[in-house]
Amino acid sequence: MKVISVIVTSNRLELLKKCVYSVINQSYKPFKVIVIDNDSKDGTNNYLSEQNGISFLTQENSGASGGFYTGIKMAFRENPDWVWCLDDDGIPNHDALEKFVEFISEQKSTENLGFIAGKVLWIDGTLHTMNLPVIYNSTGNYDSDREKIANEIVRIKSASYVNLFLSRKFISEKGYPDKRLFIWSDDTEYTMRGQDYINFSVPGVIAVHHTKENTGAVFSFAKNQNKVKLYFGLRNFILIYKKSDKILVFVFLRRLLKIFLIELFTMRVSISNILVSCIAIFNGFTGRYIVPQMIENEINPNRH
């Protein structure tokens, strides 16, 4: 089976080294390893230049969506059976790819398989909240039952890029990620295109996500909140769900208002982050993909 690994990195050289080492030393070897470097300034380019058997490309920082857009496009040109997506801080178990191939080999038919999400753990061995797939169910409700995800092969409707396998058919018919989304919910948008396929979460295919905390998307108006993540997190969530699930958007905005009032009461709010949030919400509802200058300056500070 021809599996090509795509790793997207940005200024996390030490974690990238661990990820690359794990991927190239899998018990079942990937056909090729592609690394997309989002303009790292920490020696990543020098490290990649010294590695044998790795293809890499350095580009302007275009976030996860832009990185996977480039990487998946490069991989697809090689006519793979599957493309294996990983963030640089997602370290797969030694037998992750072997377990994936075993799962595919056990299927009576792979014709309608779109994507497969491996299990993603945090460094303490618990499920990583950020990477919980949404379980498919006939009611249309959003379900991320931890017990099922941890122990059962379940059908899913969306997943994160960490430890994600995309079939050639999925890429051929659904295209590439929307690089305008930059980060946060970009993987949700991409995988949700595959609702007419059968997609699974497979607990035996394991990667460990090395983040500082085991949390999902955290929104705050405080001064220490990352403006880039705040802007794209809010805008992209509304862009993606405003038509398909208006109730979910309403609940999300109500929760956001509660956070704002609590932080306002405790005098932790940042005026600039309030402005960023208002622009993000407006652009989300009006379908605008433009990036405000203050956010562009954060992404590419050396451009100007």
Largest sheet: 10 strands, mixed
- The helix/strand series, from N terminus to C terminus, equals EHEHEHEEHEEHEEHHEHHHH
Q: What structural class do the secondary elements suggest?
A: alpha/beta
Number of helices: 11
Q: How many domains in all?
A: 2
Overall CATH architecture of the largest domain: Alpha-Beta Complex
Instruction: Please report the total strand number as a whole number.
Output: 10
Shape: globular
Distance between the termini: 46 Å
- The helicity comes to 25-40%
SS strand fraction: 15-25%
Give a written overview of the molecule.
- The structure is a single chain.
- With 304 residues, this protein is an alpha/beta fold.
- It has 2 domains: 3-209, Spore Coat Polysaccharide Biosynthesis Protein SpsA, Chain A (Alpha-Beta Complex); 227-299, no CATH class.
- 39% of the residues lie in helices and 20% in strands.
- It contains 11 helices and 10 strands.
- The chain has helices spanning 13-24, 44-49, 63-76, 96-105, 146-151, 168-174, 186-191, 227-241, 246-265, 271-286, 293-299, and strands at 3-9, 32-38, 54-59, 82-87, 90-92, 113-121, 134-135, 154-158, 164-167, 198-209.
- Strands 1, 2, 3, 4, 5, 6, 7, 8, 9 and 10 form a 10-stranded mixed beta sheet that branches.
- Helix 1 (13-24) links the parallel strand 1 (3-9) and strand 2 (32-38).
- Helix 8 runs parallel beside helix 10 (271-286).
- It is globular and about 55 Å long.
